[in-house]
Each structure stands twice: as C-alpha cells, then as structure tokens.
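Reopening: Xyloglucan endotransglucosylase/hydrolase still failing for me.
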Amino acid sequence: MASLFSSIRLILLVVLLISCMVVEYNSASDLSQDFDITWGNERGKILNNGELLTLTLDNISGSGFVSKKEYLFGKIDMQIKLVPGNSAGTVTAYYLSSEGSSHDEIDFEFLGNLSGEPYTVHTNVYTQGKGEREQQFHLWFDPTDDFHTYSILWNPQTIVFSVDNVPIREFKNLENIGVAFPKSQAMKLYSSLWNADEWATRGGLIKTDWAQAPFTASYKNFNANICNNNSSLSCKFLVENLDPVNEEKLRRVQQKYMIYNYCTDKKRFPQGFPPECNAT
Ligand SMILES: *[C@@H]1O[C@H](CO)[C@@H](O)[C@H](O)[C@H]1NC(C)=O
Ligand SMILES: *[C@@H]1O[C@H](CO)[C@@H](O)[C@H](O)[C@H]1NC(C)=O
Ligand SMILES: *[C@@H]1O[C@H](CO)[C@@H](O)[C@H](O)[C@H]1NC(C)=O
Ligand SMILES: *[C@@H]1O[C@H](CO)[C@@H](O)[C@H](O)[C@H]1NC(C)=O
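Support: Ran it again with your exact input. Result attached.
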C-alpha cells in the first residue's frame, strides 16, 4: 500500500514537473519565431530554445537578421549586449526600415571602440529616402558587460529612441512645417554586425584588430507592441507622447551625453538648418 501511494506521488510529481516545463517553455519568447538570420552563414545563431540570438563578425564576414513581420507603428524593445573588449572598427546596426529607394528608416548604430573607451550610439531618421539627421551619444554605462534595453516607439505623432527606458532622442511629426514623417510605409526590424573600420572608430583612425575576432553581439527578450496600421484596438502606443517627466529626462541626457547633433553642425548646412532644427 505504502509503495503504491509513493509511486502515485512520484507519478504526480513527474507530471507536475513536466507541466511546469511546458508552461515555462511556452511563456519564453522564441526568437526563431520572430526573426530569420539572413546572412553570414553560420555566423548568426539562435540558441537556448530561441531565448538568445548571437551575431558574429570575423575576417571573412559579418552577419545579420531580419524580422519575419513588418510593422506600421508600435513600440519595439530588444535587450542587446554589445561586442566586448576591443570592438574598434565594428558596427552593430539595429534599425527599422521599409524597402525601396524612397524608404523610411529609424536607426540605432553602435560604433565600437578600444577597450575602456566609450561606444558611440549613432541615431538617424530617414523619410522617403532622405536621412542626414544624425545625432550621436555616449552611454552612461558600459553596454558590453550586460544586456540593456534599446527601444523604438513609433506612432503617427512621434518617434522616440530610448535606452533602458530613458528617452535619448525624439523626432516629432512636423508635417505642419513641411518635414516629411514616416507614417505610411511598413518597416521590418533589422540588425547586423559588420566591419566599418574605414569610418567607425575615431573617424576611421582606429582599425579592427582581427586578432580579437570573432566579435559577438547578443540579443534577447524581444518585445513588440505592434499597432499594425491601426488594426489593433489595444494599440495604446498610437497616442503616446513624451510626458513632462520624460521630456525632462530627454533634455538631461542630451545635455550630458550627446556628442554630435546635425542641428548644430553649421559647416554641413551653410544654407541654414533643416526646418525641424528650428522647431522646439
Ligand atoms: C582569418 O582569420 C583566420 C583565423 O585567425 C586566419 O587563419 C586566416 O588566415 C584569416 N584570413 C584572412 C583572409 O585574413
Ligand atoms: C494602412 O491603412 C490605410 C487606411 O486603411 C491604408 O490606406 C494603407 O494602405 C495601409 N498601409 C499598410 C502598409 O498596410
Ligand atoms: C572612442 O573613444 C574616443 C576617445 O574617448 C571618443 O572620442 C569616441 O567618441 C569613441 N567612439 C568612437 C566610435 O570613436
Ligand atoms: C491611426 O489612428 C490614429 C488615431 O485614430 C489616426 O490619427 C491616424 O491617422 C491613423 N493612422 C493610419 C495610418 O491610419
């Protein structure tokens, strides 16, 4: 009798454990459901049942991935751990883009550096094929020793770039003063790791040290709150704007960490700055 009870108990325990594993497995996001590795042969990998994605770069090739879905408005978050150590010359690009010659694009690019020197976060917004709206930042932490969250909020009113939920850049819809805004072309999410040592680190002065290869960037906890062109009734991000608290955070980050702003680069715009630069 006792042994029958204990085997029933054992069976129940096993069933319980298996069902917990199933629940856990289902609740973890599976990056292989969201992304295709598009280039680099075996240099892009989805690991741990889809929990982790890694891109690598060596002296032969970089690698990249693209989302299976396309988006028209939403809030997209990804945790990224950038190439550690001497990453000079490498660029990790992470961006939304539509296709074609008059494409729209919302860009993060992480420019590597020598060990101990700061990464540069390069941002840009293209509308109808035209970019030239660069802003660059240093970060307030080392982006290579852990994962941090990089987000793009995109709705009909505004585009907000955030790092660990702190806004670093806003590109408002200023169609009322003649600035085109991305709002009708759906975009996919792309990322790639590649060699750009002609320009990336200190303007190309520091080259990639191939003795450090392979270089690896890692991704996890992708989260997309997608509006899909207003089809989703629960799309609260469609009306989201920066509140005063976040406006203040944005201003402080820009004061302290911005290292380049096209809107203050007089040499580039001798005929005057683009109209969005003069709007507050
Ligand atoms: C690339 O790196 C590998 C490993 O360090 C080395 O054996 C190979 O010669 C290199 N190839 C080129 C084209 O530099
Ligand atoms: C979005 O919806 C509008 C209005 O329904 C439609 O005209 C447009 O083609 C749609 N765009 C995409 C990319 O689905
Ligand atoms: C690399 O470090 C130098 C020196 O601190 C800094 O000026 C530069 O902005 C950093 N980033 C890049 C990508 O060169
Ligand atoms: C989506 O809905 C918002 C709010 O109703 C509206 O302002 C916007 O023009 C719509 N956008 C598209 C692409 O249909």
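The CA atoms of residues 89 and 197 lie 4 Å apart. If you still see a failure, please send the error message rather than a screenshot.
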